[in-house]
Amino acid sequence: MSFGAHVIPAAQRAARSDGEDTRARLLRAALQLFSEKGFAQTSVRAIAEAAGTNVAAIAYHFGDKAQLYTATFYEPFGSGSDLIPVFADPALDLGEALSRYFAGFLEPLKHDDLVTQSVRLHIRELLDPTHVWPELFERECRAPHLALVQVLRRHMGVTEVDDDIHRLAFSLAGLVMQMWTQRDALQGITPQLATEAAVEQWVERLTGYALDMVRGDIARRQADAPPVRPARRGTSQTPRTSHKKASNT
Q1: pLDDT surpasses 50 at 18
Q2: In the 3-class helix/strand/coil scheme, how is 151-202 assigned residue by residue?
Q3: Which of the chain's termini has less CB crowding within 10 Å, N or C?
Q4: Which residues, 6+ apart, have CB-to-CB distance to 163 below 8 Å?
Q5: Rounded distance, CA 220 to CA 153, Å?
Q6: 3-state secondary structure of 233
Q7: Alpha carbon 27 to chain centroid distance?
Q8: How crowded is residue 84: how many other Cβ atoms within 10 Å of its Cβ?
């Protein structure tokens, strides 16, 4: 599962977080209520009241409750699929590609209030899927994973994608997931590592850890590869053919 990407400019997102316009207030109220109660148990009237507006505003800005629910997954931080061109650019070396990968997926951690609600919302969707799940799976899970797999394959010199490439990609994504899902533990145990200022250093560290994981997997592949035996003299096709001709004479 992927969560968000650095797509919406920070200044714009900050303004929306402050609720400066009706659409932003509706989105923020919906994110909070949906994350707390789920899709089925949240009414459009409750969302409108929490946003300080009316039900007609939901129809105007989003169409209906289902489309508003969908928007809560993508608009606060964007889509993980939007990050693919950022980290999968073939012109990047592996270190820069991984740095961009982690920077994009960790940038939302600079906005603790929205992150907490977003994590809850995604977990609810996993446990009780709605109409959003098929699209969410494709955009936030499958597409970024497959893009990362191709980045690894290309830089590791692997001809064809195999199970170990997938395992490595899932492991790297797990570093991001740990940062998202263990947010409360991080704040409770080492609050100094959960600040907005700490995010950039996390990006640097996770990139280093990831590069070590990749190097380790390359070394494992090399160790597991069958040795290349040099050709033995006297075993070429020409001597065998000559021997056969000699036997027939």
Answers
A1: no
A2: HHHHHHCCCCCCHHHHHHHHHHHHHHHHHHHCHHHHHHHCHHHCCHHHHHHH
A3: C
A4: none
A5: 15
A6: coil
A7: 23
A8: 20
Using the structure block, give the residue that is written with the tokens 């597991």.
Answer: 224
CA geometry: angle 25, 105, 172, nearest 5 deg: 150
Kindly list the distances between the CA atom of residue 36 and the CA atoms of 17, 116, 122, 124, 187, in Å, as whole numbers in the listed order.
18, 11, 11, 9, 21
The tokens describing 113, both together, are 């209030």
Burial class (CB in 10 A: 0-12, 13-18, 19+), 110: middle
The answer to whether 129 and 69 are in contact (CB under 8 A) is: no
Instruction: Spell out a b/e string for 223-237, using b for 16 or more CB atoms within 10 Å of the CB, else e.
Output: eeeeeeeeeeeeeee
CB atoms within 10 A of CB 167: 11
The first and second tokens of residue 238, run together, are: 């020409």
Q: Give residue 246's pLDDT band: very low, low, confident or very high (50, 70, 90).
A: very low
Convert the pLDDT of each residue in 199-240 to its tens digit. 999 999 999 999 999 999 999 999 998 877 776 665 544 444
Residue 113 burial class via C-beta count within 10 angstroms: exposed 0-12, middle 13-18, buried 19 and up: exposed
